[in-house]
Amino acid sequence: xxxxxxxxxxxxxxxxxxxxxxxxxxxxxxxxxxxxxxxxxxxxxxxxxxxxxxxxxxxxxxxxxxxxxxxxxxxxxxxxxxxxxxxxxxxxxxxxxxxxxxxxxxxxxxxxxxxxxxxxxxxxxxxxxxxxxxxxxxxxxxxxxxxxxxxxxxxxxx
Length: 158
Prior knowledge:
There is one protein chain. By secondary structure, the chain is mostly helical. The protein folds into three domains: 6-54, Arc Repressor Mutant, subunit A; 57-97; 101-156, Arc Repressor Mutant, subunit A, CATH 1.10.10. The protein is 76% helix and 0% strand. It contains nine helices and no strands. The N and C termini lie far apart (64 Å).
């Protein structure tokens, strides 16, 4: 699939971007796989942005929302993933702010409750550690986690 003409590459990459939201970095990477040089790739990317096929802000909002809703990622993990995808800090901040905080804390509590329910034979300390580790890996902050766990562990002992 290497060394496509610019016109064929534009058609192919347009379909690639129309299928789902793509970041500018993903799009450039795909264009490079077509064997185009960086100048041609940049020119095609500029054209895709102009035509609305690629939009960094739209990508960031969609990515953050879907990772939170579908995979229950916390803001820290979403932020890190968006940085890896080359999204600017302005759009990362906007995308994270678009997550409803009531839903965010409800999801965090649900995840903690589910994890704690699997640890019935564990001591309170062990349960705290394992639940905290799990939620940190999901991308939630230490302070939010501790607040939720404190409430759930004390209610578990009642």
